[in-house]
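Quarterly update from the structural biology core.
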Amino acid sequence: MTGRSAAPGGLALLQSLVNTVDLESGVDALDTADGLDRFGLVPDDLPAVRALRESLRAALLAHAGHPPHAEVTPLDTLLAGAPLRVSVDGGDGSAALAPAGGGPLLSRVALAVAEGLVAGTWQRLKACEAADCRAAYYDRSPAARGRWCSMQVCGARAKMRRYRAK
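Predicted structure, tokenized:
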């Protein structure tokens, strides 16, 4: 339930992947043909992609200072199998990192994480602290201390719960 704009660069892919499931309703976009097509997947990819999605969510929760939402395979373990290559332009010598083998999703995720590290944006991609949401969002706040994907929904609910508890 994110009310924020998309993350910059390749992090938008990660945000989009994490947000394919609505934890409150249980609806998973990967259960549809459109959801699979969006990421270039086939039904046989689902178990691995769902594991990747939840490992990403755990990393994004860590960015927000929260423990993992479930026991997951560590993201670095999953990304260790991502084929990437460095290409160097013969004309100007510029180098770029690119997915190898046509860009499978795992490689595109690894590339997005690497680009986010270089750009200094990886730590700003977070998961909402609301237990019934956990949506990915990009924290654009000046101090990078955002807590919810949407202040109008998740933030308001949390503040109302805190108020009623008093």
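The chain has a mean pLDDT of 87.
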